[in-house]
Design brief:
Structural class: alpha/beta
Number of helices: 5
Order of helices and strands: HHEEEEHEHEHEE
Number of domains: 1
Number of strands: 8
Helix content: 25-40%
Strand order of the largest sheet: 1-8-7-3-4-5-6-2
Largest sheet: 8 strands, mixed
CATH topology: Glucose Oxidase, domain 1
Shape: globular
Radius of gyration: 15 Å
Distance between the termini: 26 Å
């Protein structure tokens, strides 16, 4: 058995503990790259957020994509625990949003430049906050 297959087999066995390991073993097309603001992996559908109030409307586990997260929007992150990940066009690893994302354990990629324009609502993506990469599903 090749090393990659061995690792994939091991990842599949531990899938109940960490479902994200499986996607890491499969080569995917990179859609976007940005700055690692909060580590972690997330799989989900994109929700484009243009105003802070839209964050509270998220009903299912989705990945929030926005041009920038204002301090008001960041406060709303605390109220909505259904957010699986965050991707923004601007921002960085020392922003208020990044600090809170790390505190809450939400993977976050900042500074992509074009995420809110390039991604569309309900598009399924894999977000790797450790490398700052967004993959297509």
């Amino acid at each position: 058995m090749t090393p990659v297959l061995a690792v994939a087999e091991k990842s599949i066995k531990s899938a109940t503990a960490n479902k994200i390991n499986i996607f890491l073993m499969v080569k995917k097309k990179i859609i976007l790259t940005g700055i690692t603001a909060s580590p972690g992996n997330a799989f989900g559908k994109v929700r484009i957020v243009k105003t802070s109030g839209e964050i509270l409307k998220i009903k299912k586990e989705e990945i929030v994509v926005a041009p920038f997260l204002t301090p008001e929007a960041v406060v709303l992150l605390r109220k909505n625990r259904k957010i699986k990940g965050i991707i923004t066009d601007r921002g960085g690893s020392t922003s208020h949003a990044a600090i809170l994302a790390r505190e809450f354990g939400i993977p976050y990629i900042a500074g992509t430049g074009t995420a809110s324009k390039k991604l569309k609502n309900n598009t399924a993506v894999n977000l790797d906050g450790g490398t700052g990469t967004v993959y297509e599903v």
